[in-house]
Design a protein that fits this description.
- The complex is a heterodimer of chains A (355) and B (347).
- Chain A is α/β, with parallel strands linked by helices and 355 residues long.
- Helix content of chain A is 41%, strand content 15%.
- Chain A has 2 domains: 33-133 and 235-265 and 307-345, D-Maltodextrin-Binding Protein, domain 2; 136-231, Periplasmic binding protein-like II (D-Maltodextrin-Binding Protein, domain 2), CATH 3.40.190.
- Chain B has helices spanning 9-22, 26-53, 57-60, 63-68, 76-94, 102-123, 139-165, 170-184, 188-202, 211-236, 240-248, 253-283, 295-303, 312-346.
- The radius of gyration of chain B is 26 Å and the shape is globular.
- The chains are: A alpha/beta (355), B mainly alpha (347).
Chain lengths: 355, 347
């Protein structure tokens, strides 16, 4: 019986190896994701789906938020239709694998741009321009009168355990010689509840997350976020390393949204502006005509339609409109624009020239 | 008043029982009063919160999302009809069998096996219906789909492994024992992470395995190890004399397993197996931490809607009720099956 078994094995194993080799060989000519997205007719976008203001489910069952509007803008610019997006909810742990295994084309999931995530030796991503400058902040009760970190000497902080948030807090407080007591929690809800129950004097987390926590409180006005920041968290969409054509396209679509805000081009006036640049008052404005794709071949150089900015702005508005729709003063998740204003208004969003 | 001669003997008896049970001694009275105050206070607070402070809009406006996920609205009848079929099947199974035509009773097991393919056909389709991608499956519907998929995969696999573990072929025995011990030695969440994160990396480029399928595979392979042990327990309860009797009757080993061992083993293992099935329903909620929008996952997405910020308590109480209802249904189905088998077993 064993002899027979080994004989069989001897016959079968080369076949098995052959089969495996067949799977491994023939890495076809790499087709850029831009081409794949277009032939598929759909953009696969990875989102959080659980972050107020950035991506969440509406009562109608559709995703909305700042992060999802970036997906919609990219779909509009590449496919001419902002609704052709296939959203996948991803957790923090899954997001990079999903990108590198090709499960998604674009990651638009409040991801902080860092060296190790960008580098080939790390997660091997390529980052698009930052779409939201976040940073770790501290939320305290207004009636505590605390305005600086020094005012929290010896107090306890509610913080997510084992996160970079906790490390940042330790680093900053140690560097400034302020003693404090961390109280660790697994989820934001536990953190909030503990803070509201008075178990700690302050919560620390990313400002965007603090803001949505505060909006959920019974009396949001009784709490303030300190001006001081503990860290830099530039959140940017990302694509996989080594696909420059796709990365360039995404990068310039995002820049297009910012540049549109700078030039005062909005969802409402875009058709007017196009008409005026085609055969109206702006007929002589070559820069605008190039930007809107009326002359030149800027889009074509990226492998996009020349009017890709027009498509994107028509679908979701310019960057400022997207921001105000989800994080503006009329929303429950209001975050003052601060660093997120366009550079002409004192912020950091600065799109290079469309030349 | 209790002593009044008019009160019927029955209510007198009740009062007597209450007094004997709850107020027999001063200590008993004290315990009763304290417990009543504590429980009453708790209940009063709960009702006060539920009817005056809670805002149930987060549940009421999103009922469709909890049940069907973000299934396309134009196709939503498919999702409802599957849930409806499942519900009807539960009712049919729980009804006393003498009220049903015998054909239906005989068809029930088949229907239970078919309900998953029917569900897949209705939800994903392609055959005549507009295809709906699995990313649109969510909510309770996805939780149930995952549960059914897991059970239908792990039960046969578990039975096979239980038999293999007792096999006389050493290689087979070692392999299954190794597998079962490996799976039982790992936390489920690690297996699920492996399924969701590592499998896509190992697949050849260009291949993708649907996330729902990946989830069912990881859950199924995990649960199968536990099911195998339950079935093995059932197998061990069979006296050796029966096997000897089967052999002396001239039954082949295969027939011995099929006709003598398994029917008895499964009947013995049934309570334990039912336990695993309920556990596998609850285990699906872990997938919320892996980005699937099953019941818990979709609730977290709904909670991110700025309109419902901070409404966690309402949502989690609603979820507790839903999970409880489903699990109670599953346990009553299991009890029903137990009774049926017992009756048949005595024939």
């Amino acid at each position: 019986m064993p002899a027979q078994f080994f004989k069989k094995l001897a016959v079968v194993s080369p076949l098995l190896l052959l089969g495996l080799a067949g799977c491994a060989t023939a890495p076809e000519e790499k087709v850029s994701l831009l081409e794949q997205v277009r032939s598929r007719g759909e953009l696969r976008c990875g989102i959080s789906g659980r972050l107020p203001g950035f991506s969440y489910l509406t009562t109608e069952g559709t995703y909305t938020g700042l992060d999802t509007d970036i997906c919609r803008a990219v779909a509009a610019a590449t496919l001419g239709n902002p609704d052709k997006v296939d959203y996948t909810q991803l957790t923090a742990a899954q997001r990079f694998t999903a990108l590198s295994s090709g499960e998604i084309d674009l990651l638009s999931r409040n991801t902080t741009q860092t060296l190790s995530r960008d580098s080939g030796g790390g997660n091997g991503l390529t980052f698009a321009p930052v779409v939201f400058y976040d940073g770790q902040g501290v939320l305290v009760r207004k009636d505590s009168g605390v305005t600086t970190l020094e005012g929290l000497e010896g107090e306890s902080f509610c913080v997510g355990g084992g996160t970079t948030t906790e490390r940042n807090l330790n680093d900053v407080m140690q560097a400034r010689g302020i003693p404090f007591e961390p109280v660790k929690f697994e989820t934001p809800q536990e953190r909030e509840q503990a803070y509201l129950d008075g178990r700690c004097a302050a919560i620390t987390a990313d400002r965007s997350s603090l803001n949505s926590s505060r909006s959920g409180f019974e009396a949001p006005d009784e709490h303030v976020i300190l001006d001081e920041g503990l860290s830099k968290e530039p959140l940017a969409p990302a694509t996989v390393d080594g696909d420059d054509q796709w990365a360039d396209a995404v990068r310039w679509i995002v820049y297009g949204l910012m540049s549109a805000e700078e030039q005062g081009i909005t969802q409402d006036n875009i058709d007017e502006r196009v008409a005026s640049a085609t055969s109206g008052a702006d007929q002589e404005n070559a820069a605008l005509r190039r930007f809107l794709g009326i002359e030149g071949d800027l889009g074509g150089k990226l492998g996009l339609p020349n009017d890709f900015v027009v498509q994107a702005v028509r679908a979701v508005g310019n960057y400022g409109e997207i921001y105000n729709r989800h994080l503006g003063p009329d929303t429950a998740t209001f975050i003052p624009r601060g660093l997120n204003a366009i550079y002409t208004e004192g912020g950091l969003h600065y799109a290079p020239p469309f030349n | 008043m209790a002593e009044s001669p008019r009160s019927s003997p029955r209510s007198r008896q009740l009062l007597l029982r209450i007094r004997r049970g709850l107020f027999a001694s001063p200590l008993d009275t004290l315990i009763t009063v304290v417990l009543a105050v504590v429980c009453g206070g708790g209940l009063w607070n709960l009702f006060h919160w539920a009817f005056l402070q809670a805002d149930w809009a987060v549940v009421l406006s999103n009922v469709r999302l909890y049940f069907n996920g973000n299934f396309p609205v134009s196709q939503i009848w498919r999702s409802w009809s599957w849930l409806g079929l499942l519900g009807a099947l539960c009712i049919l199974t729980l009804m006393p069998s003498r009220l049903l035509p015998p054909v239906v009773v005989r068809l029930l097991p088949l229907l239970w096996v078919l309900i998953l393919p029917i569900g897949l056909l209705l939800l994903a389709s392609g055959l005549g219906l507009e295809p709906v991608k699995s990313r649109f499956w969510g909510g309770l519907q996805l939780s149930l789909l995952l549960t059914l998929g897991t059970i239908l995969m792990s039960l046969p696999l578990g039975i096979l492994m239980a038999l293999a573990r007792r096999s006389s072929l050493p290689l087979l025995r070692w392999l299954t024992t190794g597998y079962i011990e490996l799976m039982r030695g790992m936390p489920l969440i690690a297996v699920l992470f492996f399924g969701q994160l590592m499998i896509p990396l190992f697949l050849p480029e260009g291949w993708t395995l649907n996330r729902v399928l990946r989830a069912v595979l990881s859950l199924g392979f995990f649960m199968a190890a536990y099911m195998a042990e339950d079935v093995r327990g059932g197998l061990q309860s069979i006296p050796k004399t029966q096997l000897e009797a089967a052999r002396s009757l001239g039954l082949s080993p295969l027939l011995t397993v099929a006709l003598v061992e398994l029917p008895q083993a499964l009947r013995t293992a049934l309570p334990a197996l039912a336990n695993q099935c309920v556990a596998s329903m609850q285990n699906t909620s872990l997938l919320a931490y892996l980005g699937l929008i099953e019941l818990l996952g979709i609730s977290r997405s709904i909670l991110a809607n700025p309109d419902y910020l901070g409404r966690h308590l309402e949502v989690y109480i609603w979820l507790a009720l839903l999970y409880w209802a489903v699990c109670i249904l599953m346990t009553s189905l299991a009890r029903r099956l137990e009774r049926t088998l017992k009756v048949n077993g005595h024939h």
